[in-house]
Design brief:
Layout (H helix, E strand, L loop, with lengths): L5 H72 L4 H34 L3 H32 L1 H26 L8 H24 L2 H21 L3 H28 L9 H20 L6 H52 L1 H7 L4 H9 L1 H16 L9 H61 L2 H26 L5 H39 L10 H13 L2 H20 L1
Helix pairs in contact: 1-2, 1-3, 2-3, 4-5, 4-6, 5-6, 7-8, 7-9, 8-9, 9-12, 9-13, 11-13, 12-13, 13-14, 13-15, 14-15, 15-16, 15-17, 16-17
């Protein structure tokens, strides 16, 4: 049998008591939480019901009431809407008075039960309130849906015109911000806007009466007018500025400039300025009429064309001014250059007969100079015509005068160049003749030096006999060429032909003599050196005999070759 002491039992009882207390507290907290949450859910239910009621009641008093008013307005104009209005108005009054008040009362009761903590009654009232509220909201939704259907066509027609009106406002705002540049056609805008606004008012009137068929028939016309202006409105300011300001201003500037230049003596008939300005003026009137009707087709192209024409006129006037300036600045120098070129050409041309007495000239060169006679005569004629302008009133344009000046400049250049070429040709004959003469003297000295080498340094009878006649012939040729140079007229072509051949022969023989001089001395020295081996080596005699034989014949090259063979063969044998 188990027994417990008294302290043990006391401890056990204390623990049990603590557990019981904790359990009771836990149960209490749970009950409190359940009660609190339950009460909170009641408040939430009431809050949600109130919110739903307020939302639907607001819809009823705003959207539904406005749509009822719209139906009322339409019913005053059309019998088609009377029955609809009466039905919807009855529904509205039934919902807004009976159902709305009933739902509000039920919610108030529910709220009072909750505040009085009568939860049993609250639960019963909650279901009643919910049913009444559901009936109220469903009837509101049903009414709104019916009203939307009733006014669907009205709303569609109202929405169709909104973007068109917005587009119109944008057009009008753009016009107002560019009013200054569009001032010349402001009446057209005022009339157009007035007409459009009348159409908008007419549309609104049809819409207000519920005349949707007339609304639909009016929309295309309004839209066409708005779109037409929208398509061109942004292009109108720059076009109108060009048409009414920029181009007329340019026309006036050119007209003033034209009149001033005419007073200053410019000939300007060829530019046809009055006719061209009148044409532009007439076109501007036509284009202005087009813009006043908002018709921009071809306007920009035409205005650009007139701007180009005005620029062309201005350029032509500037060319005339520049031409006059060029004429006044350059005429004196040009006339002086022309006079000097003409005088020099005549001088050189007239000297040809005298020059022919000294030199036989190339007919081609004479012909080249003679062919410039036409250019010379044309230059003289142009020169006289330009100089005559000084003594009579100028009746041609300055651009034409400058054109003639350029032609005279070209003629002067052509004549001067041809004269220069011919003079250079004559000078080249003189310098060439002198060159030949100087070269003849030089070659004569070289030939005499070569003759001295042959006679005294080489001093070989056979070679002397071979060479002296050629040297003498070349000296005779020098004398002959010298005689030709002193004989008038000097025929340099003939002299060149003889001299070129002479030079080749002279250079060849001088070069040959210089080479032979070296070979002769080398051959002599080699024979002397090789003769040392004649006694000791009988085999070398043949080569030595041949070397001496070739030397005696004047063939120094062969003589050197044989002597070198002896030295190569027998000098080596002697060393070994």
């Amino acid at each position: 049998m188990i027994t417990f002491s008294i302290p043990t039992l006391l401890n056990l009882a204390a623990k049990v008591a603590i557990i019981v207390v904790v359990a009771l507290l836990f149960v209490t907290v749970i009950i409190f939480l359940i009660f609190f949450l339950h009460r909170a859910s009641f408040k939430t239910n009431i809050s949600n019901m109130k919110k739903t009621y307020e939302e639907k009641n607001n819809l009823l008093k705003t959207d539904c009431q406005n749509m009822i008013k719209r139906l009322s307005s339409l019913s005053s104009f059309s019998s088609d809407f009377k029955d609809t209005y009466n039905n919807r108005n009855s529904q509205f009054h039934y919902i807004s008075i009976e159902l709305s008040e009933e739902a509000n009362k039920e919610i108030s009761k529910l709220d009072s039960f909750l505040r009085g903590k009568n939860y049993k009654a609250f639960k019963v009232q909650k279901e009643n309130t919910k049913n009444v509220l559901n009936k109220f909201t469903s009837k509101v939704d049903e009414l709104i849906s019916s009203l939307y259907d009733d006014l669907k066509e009205d709303e569609e027609n109202r929405n169709i015109i909104i973007p068109i009106k917005s587009k119109y406002r944008d057009i009008k705002d753009f016009y107002l911000s560019n009013k200054d540049s569009l001032k010349p056609i402001s009446k057209s805008f005022d009339d157009y806007f007035s007409n459009l606004e009348e159409l908008f008012l007419k549309y609104d009137s049809y819409l207000e009466k519920g005349d949707y068929k007339d609304c639909s028939s009016l929309i295309p016309l309004i839209e066409e007018k708005v779109n037409m202006l929208s398509d061109v409105i942004e292009k109108l300011p720059p076009l109108e500025t060009l048409l009414s300001t920029i181009i007329p201003t340019k026309c006036e500037e050119i007209k003033s400039r034209y009149l001033k230049m005419k007073e200053d003596g410019f000939i300007l008939n060829h530019i046809n300025i009055p006719q061209r300005l009148d044409k532009i003026k007439d076109d501007l009137i036509i284009l202005s009429s087009s813009l006043s009707k908002f018709n921009i087709e071809g306007v920009e192209e035409c205005l650009n064309s007139h701007q180009k024409d005005l620029s062309s006129i201005s350029l032509s006037l500037s060319e005339e001014e520049e031409a006059k300036d060029k004429y006044l600045k350059e005429k004196d120098k040009l006339f002086n250059d022309s006079y000097e070129a003409e005088k020099y050409y005549i001088q050189v041309f007239n000297q040809i007969p005298e020059t022919l007495k000294t030199y036989r000239l190339s007919q081609d060169e004479i012909d080249k100079l003679e062919k410039k006679k036409n250019v010379f005569e044309l230059a003289c004629q142009t020169h006289r015509q330009l100089e005559n302008l000084e003594s009579i009133a100028i009746t041609v344009t300055y651009t034409q005068i400058v054109k003639e000046m350029k032609r005279l400049e070209a003629s002067i250049e052509e004549i001067s160049q041809a004269t220069k070429v011919f003079v250079n040709y004559i000078n080249s004959l003189q310098s060439h003749a002198q060159e030949i003469y100087d070269e003849l003297g030089n070659y004569y000295c070289q030939l005499k030096e070569a003759e001295e080498k042959v006679m005294y340094k080489i001093n070989h009878q056979v070679y002397l006999e071979q060479t002296i006649p050629s040297l003498e012939q070349l000296v005779k040729t020098i004398s002959m060429i010298d005689a030709y140079l002193k004989s008038k007229p000097i025929d340099l072509d003939k002299i060149d032909s003889i001299f070129s051949s002479f030079k080749v022969n002279c250079e060849n023989i001088i070069t040959e003599i210089n080479i032979k001089e070296k070979e002769c001395h080398e051959a002599e020295e080699l024979i002397k050196e090789a003769n040392c081996y004649r006694i000791e080596f009988q085999d070398c005699r043949k080569y030595l005999n041949d070397a001496e034989k070739y030397f005696n014949e004047g063939n120094f090259t062969k003589s050197i070759e044989n002597s070198k063979i002896v030295l190569k063969l027998f000098a080596t044998n002697n060393q070994t």
